Amino acid sequence: MDAALQCTLCSNRYNTADRIPRFLPCGHTFCNSCLISILAHPSPECPDDSVAIPYSSPDLLPKNVLLLKLVSKTKQILCTEHKKKLEYVCMTEKIKICSYCALLGAHKDHDVKPLEEIMNEVHMRARCLLDMLEMMDRTEIEIDGTVMDYLEKVNKKFVQKKSETEEKIKKKFKKIRKLIDTLEKSTLETVAKNIEFIESAITAAKETPKRICAQSREWKDVARDVLDLVDARCEDPNSVVFEILGKDTNDLLSFGEKLLTELDGARAITNQKFDDMIESLKVEFAEKGVNNLCKVYPLSTFNFKQEEPQTESLIGHSPDSSLV
Prior knowledge:
The chain is built from seven helices and five strands. The chain has helices at about 30-40, 65-75, 100-105, 115-235, 245-265, 275-280, 285-290; strands at about 20-25, 30, 90, 95, 110-115.
């Protein structure tokens, strides 16, 4: 018990006067008198872990309130019944007792432990809580500073990247739409020329038989007139149809041969590849190419797991102070 209430440097017992226990920034505790000597150095540091002490006076350091309470309570160390020091603890009833109480008194069959052992355990647990508290404070400060600054930079970078990506997509697709509009116009113009060619071919094919047949009818009328003249002259044995031997008949025969050739060609119109020409009037679209205009890359992710909040609150929980 006494060891827990003594300064580890001078081995003197803490008190509320000149040996007040005070915390260093690193978490170690020393008495006020020892701290005066430590802080007198040009570069004061903790004797245990050499952590720098940024203070010039012990009064600026926080008091170890827990040790002060223990010091004040350990003044009342006599058993009221046996007038002996309270050097043991009854764990069954959670009170301090003397050796007579433990061996012969009302607590002889109870779970009894030395007070020093219990106080060392109390001090150790208090130190663990203090270390944990300081670690939490440092971690929170780091989170509020470094971590939050980093996350702010990350968020700013993300917002900028988001804006740049969206703007890039809009510009690219605007350009693509313009190219598509130009391609559509060019394609329609090319197809229109093909359509016009087919229409002209069909129209010409429809007009050619009409023209040839009309010329054929005219030719046949002239040819019949000549033949009628020949028939009339042949009835006279002394007559010779010299007219049929002339240039006009030669021209008529030549034109007739031409008409026969054209009529034969008109008859072969059905053999021409109009169906193939019409079927060739088509446009193919590379849909796969359109789908591959852009590519969205998969995200590079990491596992970010946030612990579920505890449902049980520690607020309102307080340790049993009956031993101290």
